[in-house]
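Sorry, I am new here, but would you mind making up a protein's amino acid sequence and the tokens describing how it folds?
***
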Amino acid sequence: MREEDTSTWAVIIILVMVFLLPIGWIFFAYPAEPHYVVTGEPVRDAAQAAGIRVISTSDITWPIPGAEGGTIYILEDDAGNTLAVQTQTFNSAESRDAAILTFSAQTMGKGKTAGTLVVIGDQLIHFDPDPGGILSRIGAELRKMQGVQ
């Protein structure tokens, strides 16, 4: 084996260790959320548990295959900070996961909305940017609901 071949293999192994192993660890550490029918309103329940008020709601259906409808919530805390949250229910795990991939594949400002996406069962929950800290307050409540069937 030539020295150039050895150097090439060393670079490939280092790249695999630096980039692919951490991605693999993420997949094992954070397994996919199973698809199940969510009963009730997770956002409203989490907000109430965290002491956040729901000041308005309206219906919405995202223009994505498999989307079955959801709700837009406007939340407000005691300091007057507000946060818009959208939920959307999907008819299958495949359509839900395709929506997640579509969201993740977009470049910020090039069709991707700013914010955070959370998965609970058959629902995707999108939080607008949150400068007031409401998401951090209800996030713990939402995490408790993940994987609960």
